Q: What sequence folds into this?
């Protein structure tokens, strides 16, 4: 989470981070936060008098995935390497 996201979480605001959500990359006031059977949701005031709920995981207030944090963008394997490996294995089977 970047420093802007931390400030947003501290001052009762959240950014919608899910890339396919219609409110993507917009910041809203958090009206409520509830734990429901379907998961934890934030209630955001998207305009005066209009509140919408979104899963917490789709906002800047989501807890960071520990694996993603520890990996820090590093990977032992790259897609191109894995594709070439698959091709080599396929050749060996023939």
A:
């Amino acid at each position: 989470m970047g420093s802007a996201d931390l400030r947003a979480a501290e001052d009762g605001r959240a950014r919608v981070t899910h890339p396919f959500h219609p409110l993507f990359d917009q910041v809203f006031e958090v009206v409520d936060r509830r734990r429901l059977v379907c998961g934890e949701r934030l209630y955001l005031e998207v305009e005066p008098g209009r509140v919408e709920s979104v899963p917490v995981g789709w906002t800047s207030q989501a807890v960071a995935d520990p694996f993603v944090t520890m990996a820090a963008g590093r990977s032992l394997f790259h897609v191109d390497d894995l594709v070439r490996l698959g091709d080599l294995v396929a050749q060996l089977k023939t």
In short: The chain has one domain: 3-69.
